[in-house]
Amino acid sequence: MNFPYISIIVPVYNVEKYLRECLDSILYWSFANWEAILVDDGSLDNSGAICDEYVSIDSRFKVIHKKNEGVSVARNTGLDIARGEWCWFVDSDDVIDSNIPIDMSLLECKDIVVFDILLYNEGEQRPSPRGDASIEECLEINSFYLKNISWTHPALWYHRKFWGKSGDFVIRFSKGIRLGEDGEFMRKCELLSNNPVKINYTSYYYRQRQGSATHSSEKDKITLDDAFKVLYNICLLYTSDAADE
C-alpha cells in the first residue's frame, strides 16, 4: 500500500462561502503526494455536500461527516485516520499556496517544518508568495525557535512521531479550549522536537474575516481563560516527559 507523504487535515463547519477556494488550492498543489481529510463537523449549510463533491473529483480527498463537537475533536478525528509521514492543519476558510516546493530528501530526519504565512482581509486580493525556498537548518534548538517561533499552527508541518498512534507521544488537541487549542498542540510539539527546519516560502494565506472565532467580541476574555488551561496542559506534558527519563 502506498502511503501519502503528507496528510492535510481540514475541519469544516458552515464555510460554504470559502470552502471551494480552500479545496481548490489543495487540489491544484504541484506536489501530488498528499491526502486531504475533510472533517465535516455537523455543518448546517452546504459544506458537507461540497466535501462530497471533492471526494468524487479526486480520491486523495477523504470526508468524515460527524455531529458537531468542536474543532479540537474534528482535528483529532483526522489525526486518528491520517496515514502520512507529516500532517498539516488547514482551516477551511483559508488557502494554501499551490506551488509550495517540496524536496523530500531535505526533510529526512526532520520533525517540524516551519513555513511563512501571510494574512489578508476578507474582500482583499490575496498577496503574492514570498521567499526563495531556501533552507534554515537548526544548529541549536533554542536559537532556532527564538528566530522562527510561529504564532499560528497552519505555518507548521508536524512529523508523525508526535501524533501517530504508534508514535513517541500521540499528542492530541485538548477538548474544552476554545481559542488556544492550536497553540497548545503547537507548543507541545515544539518542546519535544529536536530537529526542526525553516523553509523560507509562503505556504499559507490566512483570511481575516468577521464572524470567525478569532474575531468574536469575547475573544480577549476567552483567550485569557484558555491561556491558563493551555499552560497547565503543557506543564503536565513536560513534567510527565521528565519523569519518564
Molecular structure report:
This protein is an alpha/beta fold and 245 residues long. The protein has helices spanning 16-27, 47-57, 71-81, 141-148, 160-163, 181-192, 219-244, and strands spanning 6-12, 34-41, 61-66, 86-89, 95-96, 112-121, 134-137, 156-159, 196-208. Strands 1, 2, 3, 4, 5, 6, 7, 8 and 9 form a nine-stranded mixed β-sheet that branches.
Question: Pairing-aware structural class of the strands and helices?
Answer: alpha/beta
Number of strands: 9
Biggest beta-sheet profile: 9 strands, mixed
Order of helices and strands: EHEHEHEEEEHEHHEH
State the separation between the terminal residues, measured CA to CA: 36 Å
Number of helices: 7
Cα radius of gyration in angstroms: 17 Å
Shape: globular
Strand content: 15-25%
Share of helical residues = 25-40%
**So what's the oligomer here?**
single chain
Mean pLDDT comes to: 89
Q: Would you identify the regions where 5 or more consecutive residues have pLDDT less than 50?
A: none
